[in-house]
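retry 2 of 3: previous attempt timed out while embedding iron/sulfur cluster. Reduced batch size to 1 and resubmitted. Inputs unchanged:
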Amino acid sequence: MQIDPLVFRAKFPESCRPDRCRSRCCRFGVWADVGEKKAIVDNRDLFLPYVRPEAIDPACWFGRTEPDPDCPSGIAVETRVVAGACAFLHPDHGCALQKGAIEAGLHEWKFKPRFCIMFPLVLTEGQLTVDEDMKSLWCMKERNRTHPITEAVRKEVQYLFGQEMAKALTRQPVVR
Ligand code: SF4
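retry 2 succeeded.
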């Protein structure tokens, strides 16, 4: 996997602040891998207590699929928007997939789609880069972007891609 030099220059807040952003990045749902969908559906009982009443039916959780070479399986599936937000977003505790895993004593990100974990980093055509499209989010406004993104998301990168990749983030890119 290549790292876009932009990743080394870009800034982000010191950490996510759901109290400031009110999880606006979750309003539109996300593209997950079909393997992630299977794990979520197979473990649906973990999440049912934490979804909103209008998203209680697992049949409404996922929508269309499409080929995506950046997904491990090669096929992406959308999480559906239900009543104005991702089916898994709950205003009281955020992502039901994260909340359900924590309450079950599992890693907080065990069932969370990788694209949610890595935001605002994104994998595009095999390159790790920064998703600069959602400028209206609190974390993407210039005045709030005070820290190197490589520090802010190091833990997430290590979880998803391993220690070597996390170390690579702290190295300076080769200038050609
Ligand atoms: S799966 Fe969870 S983190 Fe991802 S968009 Fe939905 S509510 Fe947000």
